């Protein structure tokens, strides 16, 4: 006999017009009860007006994304007993960032808009479409795209991303994972166009690993963004963001290659230019940090090792 | 106890005070920090934007040095260095193709990576090996009554599948250490948000906005000071704090300390001995320290 417990579920209700409010429900559950099942019990037994989305109950459709105890998760992949606190209580809210429709249902149209901006499908060669050639992919290419094509469009990463909230030019984690997935796919014919769409946006990511953390499919969008950034030399465009990124990126590389370490003062000068660097040094002086800014650390003694490691592949 | 110690470039540069305070309290706690021989920059957060293979190889060179020194653990005061070494070791283990490339690169320098070294944050060592009770027993000047915002940032916590020390959405390490000093820890909603430092080399306007949000959120929740666990957060939130306050027309400042600086204060060290900046020093003077 599996032990049942009565759990308390607080749900943030919203009618689409008035301020949201919290409503409390008591439900029985055992250690096999998913949060989507908890919601089904509440809706069928207590509150037919409760609004939430859930279709597949097996982490494939991505529709039950919500905040559970403040953390973005899929309800179907979350067991009630794993998340309830010492008082057997659980809080449910709609995802952050998106406009609310009703209760736990957000309007994720803006998520789809982001995805469509990166042309989320394969553009095959004409000869393949005409049936004259086979569509081939090497095992190594397949491995490279595998993780990034597992996205289920649930919207959790975008809801949790700080850059999305603060920078409208950032396409968001999911779109980047999708975009890179086709850059790395040798069958696709739009690589240059994709790099043009993605490059400026990639350098607007703050690498905080929030998307990696919240993704229920382990897509690791931030890694896709980092891989996209490594195509910077193939990018022919130039924006304010990519121009600064180029200077910074190259200086970091040269400093490590030549000294084995990052020298902040050199990095400042080369990235921001003399004028901006002086302004920052003045701020540091006011905070009493100038003595550290001018200090010099030892270079790596065995610098040849570093040069060999960083050199081009033989 | 002896631990291999990886200071990282920032704490030997503009964030030198992170290193100063860490060395001071380590001595009091009988932790001998043995610097990793001829260590190189981990390239954390930047080098993997250019090449995953080079980034991984550079980090494994450091871990191999630690192994050759006879240690199985490397402690660093910097969350970015921590994240960088752990991610590199994780990728190397899980990705056979990357491993092949990295082995070839290391081979050019006659390095054979053997594994068996765990990178840990200095505060993990404080909590797991030194112990909170032991730290409390060294407190000579409890920071009673000071409300300290406990900030974690991103790299210490995420991805939790690789970092592993505590739950990313409900961390407690910094809070536990602040409580040990006698100060009152203040949790605030943005405690695990990014400070914006990684954007300073490409999109500084948004990077500065992120830092301002941390200050405003901590202050709004009653914090009078802020502590953090990262040398690069230190550059962003302490060394160039006045730039952020100017940019957003804030008429106040937020004294920001690295976690070992706060512990050092409770151990009886002066702000000068701990290398504190002027904002924190002036504030602490006004509070009688």
Automatic annotation (TrEMBL), chain A:
NCBIfam families: dhsB, PRK12576.1. It holds the Pfam family Fer4_8. Residues 142-169, 195-225 form the 4Fe-4S ferredoxin-type domain. InterPro entries: 2Fe-2S_ferredoxin-like_sf, 2Fe2S_fd_BS, 4Fe4S_Fe-S-bd, 4Fe4S_Fe_S_CS, Beta-grasp_dom_sf, Helical_ferredxn, SDH/FRD_Iron-Sulfur, Succ_DH/fum_Rdtase_Fe-S. One of its GO terms (molecular function) is 4 iron, 4 sulfur cluster binding. Belongs to the succinate dehydrogenase/fumarate reductase iron-sulfur protein family. GO terms for biological process: respiratory electron transport chain; tricarboxylic acid cycle. Its EC number is 1.3.5.1. This is succinate dehydrogenase. Keywords: 2Fe-2S, 3Fe-4S, 4Fe-4S, Iron, Iron-sulfur, Metal-binding, Oxidoreductase, Tricarboxylic acid cycle. Its cofactor is [2Fe-2S] cluster; [3Fe-4S] cluster; [4Fe-4S] cluster. SUPFAM superfamilies: 2Fe-2S ferredoxin-like (SSF54292), alpha-helical ferredoxin (SSF46548).
UniProtKB/TrEMBL annotation, chain B:
Keywords: Oxidoreductase. The keyword Oxidoreductase applies. It holds the Pfam family CCG. It comes from the Archaea. Residues 3-83, 149-238 form the Cysteine-rich domain. GO terms for molecular function: oxidoreductase activity. Gene3D superfamilies: 1.20.1050.140, 3.40.50.11810. This is Disulfide reductase. It comes from Acidiplasma cupricumulans.
